[in-house]
Amino acid sequence: MADSAQRPAAAPQQPRRGIMESVGAAFSTVWSAGMEGQRGAIERLGAGVLSITEAVGHDTLLLLRSVAWSRSIFRKGREILRQMFLCGVMSFPVVVLVSIFAGAVLALQAGLTIRPYGIASKIGAIVAASMTREMGPIMAALILAGRVGSSMAAELGTMRVSEEIDALEAMSIDPVRFLVMPRIVAMFVMAPVLTVFADLIGVLGGAVVAYYQVGVTYHSYFAEAENVLVLTDLNSSVLKAMVFGILIALVGCGRGLRAKSSAEGVGKATKDSVVASFILIIIFNYLITSIVREFY
Amino acid sequence: MIELVDVYKAFGPKQVLNGFSLRVERGETFVIIGRNGIGKTVTFKHIMGLMKPDRGKVLVEGVDITGLSNHELIAVRDKFGMVFQGCALLNWLTVAENVALPLRERTSLSKRQILDKVMEKLTLMGLQNAGHLFPAECSGGMKKRAAVARAIVRDPQIILYDEPTAGLDPIMASVVNDLIIELRQKLQITSMVVTHDMASAYRIADRIGMLSGGKLIEIGTPEQIRTSQNPIVRQFIEGRVADPAVAERPT
Predict the structure, then answer these.
(1) pTM of the model
(2) A-chain residue closest to B93, CA distance
(3) Measured at the alpha carbon of residue A267, what is the angle toward residues B41 and B136, in degrees to the nearest 5?
(4) CB within 8 Å of A148: residues ≥ 6 apart
(5) What is the pLDDT of residue B251?
(6) Rounded Cα distance, B41 and B163, in Å
(7) Which chain A residues have a beta carbon less than 8 Å from that of B73?
(8) Which residues of A touch B77 (CB under 8 A)?
């Protein structure tokens, strides 16, 4: 009696599902989850495409308005000079350091590879061509995107958060004329200057390594460098730098002006500006190289 | 002078202004009070044309500015000066350069004329010896006064003050309040002030409006507001923790 009193009452039995019913239910669950996941992915893709389209549209308008405001270039001369100092002069030490070692490692790798074939003197040609045609403009641009573009996005984003952009608009001062145009002009001028320095210093760095580690004389190194380079290389380098300079300033300012009003918004604008600039630099580098090679 | 007629503005699902109407007369000081995030600053941005309403009219001297282009809005904004809550001084310019900015960018005055005008306004604000300082080197009160100097440097007809005494000690808050009263008396400027500071509101206002639920639920003289029996107004001016009976419904 005691046992039967302690025994729990039997739970009411659930009606048993047939195998086909269970399989059907499982399939339905998986199908719904899959559709849900697909819808989520499509929504994210759509949001991403919209966001990119909006950013491209915004930045294109920003560029056109900056070009329109370039008539005020002399009135904004002081601000442009200040930006040239901040973007160009302050970036110079980093560009020098990176260029020296980029040229050096290029010379070392090229030297070690071609020395067994007895054409080590060609290092000068390899380093000069690589630095001037591709590495100089790309390296200077990546440094500027990381150092200057991000700082522009952070600065303008912070100004957005602290209502300084609103204050300019309230004073009928166009932020594009006051903030964006001087930055674009400064980068348009200083990016080529830094790039030419990067080309030159990279070649010099390569010369030192070629002399000490590969055993190529300075004379033959520079003679080979001179032989391989044509004016088009320098022109292409400067053209790339101008385009990269505009892109970096445009993306940095665009992301800053569109930053959400929070610390997180400024952080995101900064990060996005660096990522977008890097991608654009790589794409435009290919496009410009293709166009230049096509016509020269 | 300034009139908002049945203005609606939403940010996503949040309805911030919900049939907001207001009329401010020339030379009047009108104070808007209300809780944080209720739409006080948004109201100012509509008056300046920095935001466009979803519905309704914003009239400045009889002209509806909601349909104006950016170019046309410039002429309207030239009538205004605005003091922002965080002062919004440009940190790479000195106090004097900040004050000179609207003159340098928006007028064709000579350097000498600009300097004279800037010194006049800095002196009016008691900042005659602080022109060379950068905003980071200034106290909160100095920044606020510099922001007021910048707002009045072009002798506007209307000044909007967004939380002019926020973050200031009581003495400095009194200085700013006196300044607002003095500007009205000396220059006959129309002022609109957004504040949480009831002592300041009672002192400077000709009329006070309580903003709640996206519209002004009560408008009156300081005395009328002080003795108001509206439970939301009483709760706000007495600083009582929300009473469920009168707590604002989420918008």
Answers:
(1) 0.81
(2) A79
(3) 65
(4) A86, A87, A91, A187, A248, A249, A252
(5) 40
(6) 9
(7) 172
(8) 169-172
> From CA A91, how far away is CA A94, in angstroms rounded?
6
> In 3-state terms, what secondary structure has residue A229?
coil
Taking only the tens of pLDDT, chain A with its 296 residues reads 344 444 444 445 555 567 777 777 777 777 777 767 677 888 888 888 888 888 888 899 999 999 999 888 998 899 999 999 999 999 999 999 999 999 999 999 999 898 888 888 899 999 999 999 999 999 999 999 999 999 999 999 999 999 999 999 999 899 999 999 999 999 999 999 999 999 999 999 999 999 999 889 999 999 999 999 888 888 999 999 999 999 999 999 999 999 987 888 999 999 999 999 999 999 999 999 999 888 77
Across the interface, whether the CB atoms of B90 and A164 are under 8 A apart is answered yes
Decide if A78 touches B, using CB distance below 8 A.
Answer: no
Quote the pLDDT of residue A14: 53
> Pseudo-torsion of CA A181, A186, A191, A193, nearest 10°?
150
Nearest chain A alpha carbon to B48: A170
- Write out the E strands in B77-179: 80-83, 158-162
A226 touching B (Cβ < 8 Å): no
Contact A170/B at CB under 8 A:
yes
Give the full edge-to-edge strand order of the sheet including B207-212: B80-83, B158-162, B190-195, B29-33, B207-212, B215-220
Q: Looking at this protein, which amino acid is placed at residue B50? A: L
Q: How far apart are CA B79 and CA B67, in angstroms?
A: 18
**3-state SS, residue A262:** coil
Here the ipTM equals: 0.85
* B14-54 pLDDT tens trace: 899 999 999 999 989 999 998 888 888 899 999 998 899 99
- Flag residues of chain B having pLDDT under 50: 244-245, 247, 249-251
Cα A169 to chain centroid, rounded: 30
Distance CA B144, CA B141 (A): 5
CB-based contacts of B116: which residues, under 8 Å, 6+ apart? none
Yes or no, beta carbons of B80 and A163 under 8 Å apart: no
Beta-carbon contacts below 8 Å between A and B: 44
Res A1: pLDDT: 39
| Residues in B touching A178 (Cβ below 8 Å) | 105
Q: Nearest CA to CA, how far is B222 from chain A (Å)?
A: 29
Per-residue buried b or exposed e for A98-112, using 16+ beta carbons within 10 Å of the residue's own CB: bbbebbbebbbebbe
Query: Is residue B26 within 8 Å of residue B43, measured between CB atoms?
Result: no
Token pair of B108 as six digits: 């064709």
**What pLDDT is recorded for position A15?**
53
Per DSSP bridges, beta strands B29-33 and B190-195 are parallel
**Is A163 close to B88, i.e. CB distance below 8 A?**
yes
Q: Which residues of A touch B80 (CB under 8 A)?
A: 170
How is residue A74 annotated by DSSP? T
Which amino acid is residue B192, in one-letter code? M
Candidate from B50, B82, B88 with C-beta closest to A164: B88
Q: Chain B contacts of A159, Cβ < 8 Å?
A: 90
